[in-house]
Give the backbone structure.
Amino acid sequence: MAISTINVGNIANDGTGDDLREAFIKVNNNFNEFDNRVADLSITGENLGSAGEGIFAGKVPGTLQFKEIIAGDNISVSANSTSVIIDSAGGITDILVLLDNGHISIDGTAPTRISGGDIIETRAVDGDIVIDLEDRGILAHDKEPTLSSNLRADNNDIHSVAALSADSVTAETVNANLEGTVFGIDIRGISDYIDGNWDFGEFFPKFNNVFDYLVFNTDVDMGSFVGDDTVIFDIDLGLGFQN
């Protein structure tokens, strides 16, 4: 209810104001109203939200208490009649970046460049930093490239091969197979002509008469030649008959 005002009239004892009883009824009603309003002061403050730090500290009779907002390192706090302003005093000064091998400290007051190395490219795409390997040249930068599994050319050519040799470190014999063609020729059958003994069959001379044929096909047993080391035998068998 609202506070009741006692009518005291225009001048003293002019009979226009509240009588004594009516005036004290209003006084009692006003005291009751004050009691009700004091009872409502039992409410307390509440920090809203599920995260962050609350600013309400507590309540003592007649006073709600709140926490102070204190500026930390590189932070400033100011206020006006309607707002509390929290600002960074000088921006971020340093960022510590942990790497697989060591770490670096980035100065927040100056631009920092992220650069790629050999066959590495860095670029910005829609606010993201993208680090890529170049499409070509990875093996060219590897001084001692090795394979951990079979090499597939996927029907592509291999050019400018100097030599296939034994391992220079372990001296192991190269016994792996190269599959495919050499200048379009399947060379797998060439081993039939390289391995084993070559057999060209027999060579038959050309004869111009029957006497030459008989002489060629007649075995002549000249027996044994006996003599000391000083004897030199000179045997002339004539000319051959092969054309």
